[in-house]
Amino acid sequence: MAKTLGAFILLSVFMATPAHAAKVLILGDSLGASYGMAEQSGWVALLQKNLPEYQFTNGSVSGETTAGGLRRLPALLDSVAPDLVVVELGGNDGLRGFPPTQLENNLIQIITLAKDSGAKVLLTEIMVPPNYGPRYTQKFTQVYQDISKAQDIVLIPFFMQDIAPHPELMQRDGIHPNEKAQAQIATWMQPWIEDALTQ
After folding, report:
1. Catalytic site residues?
2. Which residue numbers delimit the SGNH hydrolase-type esterase domain (predicted)?
3. Is the pLDDT of residue 117 over 90?
């Protein structure tokens, strides 16, 4: 009887213990940092609502470059211990005209650090406006394609492609998505994140 009761208690404790909630770190810039709106209105917060079984940490900072993200990443990896890192960086490198080789080097280091911590990695494609010239924009975009292949990681197509052409989804600066666009971005990102965490 005592053994049976003990087994029942152990089973009850086991069943009451929540399973490990996979942790997702979003390492991004203003596109991920809810620029121009309350943080709870941004797509990262919406993903947390849509996927309550996971734990999201928004490590995005407005104005962030890949170099800045690289500097901050070790501390974030230590504090969050993520199972998945979503890298959404490079836009500010492009807007400042930084060399694509610098962009590539920083992204590779970010991905390597994340992988070495045991996390899976998703890379979000970033594109720069066409007024930077076809040569620069092509080289910039190619960096993401090349890294995806070389590092064997999934490249998420740029979520702004279907938003930027629509003024009603953009803020007045013409660069950042507005609050109306956040649900669309969350819907775009969700299956990529779910796939990465369930494979």
Report:
1. 30, 173, 176
2. 26-182
3. yes
